[in-house]
Amino acid sequence: LQPLVESGTLPKTAALTIAGGIAGGFQGYVLSPTLLLKTRVMTNPVFREKMSLAKTTALSLTIGFDVVLNEGLAALMKGANIFALKRVFDWATRFYFSDVFAKLLRSLMGKDLSALESMYADFLGGTASTLATLPLDVLVAKTQDAKKAGVAVSPLKMFLDELQEKG
């Protein structure tokens, strides 16, 4: 994207937002199997029973093997597309909103921002990004839930069902 910025074709802010989104997409695909396993552990009723730390750890470590054994290796990527899309939106909106808040603070203060003021803008940008992408977080968790093991789930149908049921 840098050559597009240098040629004046793409504003630097847009390039940073797009670059953040691309990086987020890669991050989503790389982290997705780990998130799936974490979600399976959190939603598995076995882990609601009282047990020792050693037993909890041992059972947690078997979740990945169980997923692959029962659902196949591809199951580790269940929900990866939604998660990667969520990460694209998360990082792109985080860069975008941080820039928006930085510009807003600069215009209100009439000067360049200090490091602390830039941190405030970034914090506000991250907060706005979190609020904007929260529905995708819910979809990812619902897609990867242990109760849906081996079940193909439509993200759009899940979203509409959730919206109708809970508002």
Characteristic terms for this protein:
167 residues, mainly alpha, 6 helices
Topology (elements, then pairings):
Layout: H1 2-6, H2 12-43, H3 53-71, H4 80-109, H5 115-144, H6 155-166
Structure description:
With 167 residues, this protein is an all-alpha fold. 77% of the residues lie in helices and 0% in strands. The chain has six helices and no strands. It has helices at residues 2-6, 12-43, 53-71, 80-109, 115-144, 155-166. The longest helix has 32 residues, at 12-43. The chain starts with a helix and ends with a helix.
Oligomeric state: single chain
Succession of helices and strands: HHHHHH
Instruction: Give the total of beta strands.
Output: 0
The radius of gyration computed from the alpha-carbon positions, rounded to a whole number of angstroms, is: 20 Å
Quick overview:
With 167 residues, the chain is mainly α. The protein has helices at residues 2-6, 12-43, 53-71, 80-109, 115-144, 155-166. The longest helix has 32 residues, at 12-43.
